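**Backbone geometry record:**
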Amino acid sequence: MFYSLTFSAARTCAQEEQLNISVTPNSETKDFGMLPMQTMYSSDGWDSYSWGFLAESTELEIVIHNPGVEEDPACGPLIDSIGLKTLYPPKRTRANMLKNGNFEEGPYVFPNTSWGVLIPPNIEDDHSPLPGWMIESLKAVKYIDSDHFAVPEGKGAVELVAGKESVIAQVVKTTPGKIYHLTFAVGDASNSCEGSMIVEAFAGKVTLQVPYESKGKGGFKRAKLRFTAMSPRTRVRFLSTFYTSEE
């Protein structure tokens, strides 16, 4: 089975920190996650982080380790509220060729929290807590749910919290020469982020910029990117041209 680990963390000092996540037994060598904590995204000092893994045994040892040597020995990340969730591999449907296109499968979100769950940068399929999607960027993206935020449809959505440094991507099977339509929704999470936003969608070499004026109270607009497939596999990517901070 595939699982997603979620935990909340806070920094005690203003210095760069990171956490190492590993699971044993594991047949792959050096197969661990290194989660950077340089950037704090919530206004109250706490962020939730997630990491996915495939279980190779009925019993596992999960280790959250601080590999750094702090300048101040009294400094170090605080860990709280650890959760584990089973994730089910998404499948493409006749209606949607993208896996988990509605972001219904995602990491566990702690009840009564206001900061969502960060998905670390440079995460491939085998460790992505967002099944079907890769994080192709230097910064994290944030998974949010409809219990705590405004989402355009369904139970989940992804917030691109770091502009062009937040990118989600998926490779989809296509037929060369055939025309496809990539439809998606752009909006705000009703978390007081106001201002002008632009989301860029890519399908192979074709791109579309979608502007959105956020009032920070929830809302969205739909967009469609029409493209002709050039190869048997097309990479679909989404990024934010710039982002707006919460006031």
The mean pLDDT is 88. The first strand starts at residue 2 and ends at 10.
